Amino acid sequence: MTSESLDNHSLADQLNEAFTRPSGREFNQMRQVEFKTGIAPHANGSVLCSFGNTQVICAAMIEDRIPGWMRQQKVEGGWLTAEYNMLPYSTLTRKDRPSSKGKQDGRNIEIQRLIGRSLRAVVDLKKFPDKTLWIDCDVLRADGGTRTASITGAWVAARIAINNLLSRGKLDEDPIIDNLAAISVGIYKNTCILDLDYPEDRDASVDANIVMTGSGQFVEVQSAGEEATYNKSQLDEMLDLAEKGINELVIAQQASLS
């Protein structure tokens, strides 16, 4: 699908005056995106990433050591890993901390693994020898898209931390090979839409999270029907919307760093 077709959408949807998004946004319009850097002064890099009302603090910290399994297996380079957590007051009703339950939250584990492997796709770990880059994503306020905001903000935090090492001569080469961002898309009221907030995510018949590099390569595509199905043309339309959103996010990332 071309960008022209995305802008025009389908004639049927243009004629469907009943279609409105809860926020009043257009089908291909993202929420306001904002990056506030330096939010955690003790971290090597940090940012408060906001997608509308969704707010995530993303912080990067660097340790001069690698996991034991890397030493045992004599794996060269460094490592990157992530942790994700929703603060108790991030949702309308209090969310218990995993530590109070005595076990990890399954959803948290899934998302932090997604963040870690997404970032590793754009970091050459061989250029990051004998170091571990920790990424911590803490959801301050949840209104849909916390995992996509976490990934997008985590890249900014990592970029700041790596820039700091490079400026101090602690790295010979830049290990970050591309931008990275993520966005949600879905089918809401039979219409493909970009960047779902909570009411849309709750009521969507299909939702997807797309992770892409700045050069347009896919890192991960997670899509599922909620007791519904979708066809190839709808999937193509959602992917085109995601690409549009990722391009906007990359521009915003670069602006925040400049």
The fourth-level CATH homologous superfamily is GHMP Kinase, N-terminal domain
| Strand content bin | 25-35%
Overall, the morphology is globular
**Mind telling me the C-alpha Rg?**
19 Å
Query: Which CATH top level class fits?
Result: Alpha Beta
| Helix-residue proportion | 25-40%
Note the quaternary state here.
single chain
**What is the tally of helical segments?**
8
Unreliable stretches (pLDDT < 50, length at least 5) are 11-16
Biggest sheet overview: 5 strands, mixed
> What is the terminal separation in angstroms?
33 Å
CATH architecture: 2-Layer Sandwich
Strand order of the largest sheet: 1-2-3-5-4
Structure description:
The protein is of the alpha+beta class and 258 residues long. The chain has a single domain, classed as Ribosomal Protein S5, domain 2 (2-Layer Sandwich), CATH 3.30.230.70. Helix content is 34%, strand content 27%. The strands form two sheets. A five-stranded mixed sheet has the order 1-2-3-5-4. Strands 7-6-8-9 form a four-stranded antiparallel sheet, sandwiched between helices. Helix 6 packs parallel to helix 8. It is globular. The two termini are 33 Å apart. About 2% of the residues have low confidence.
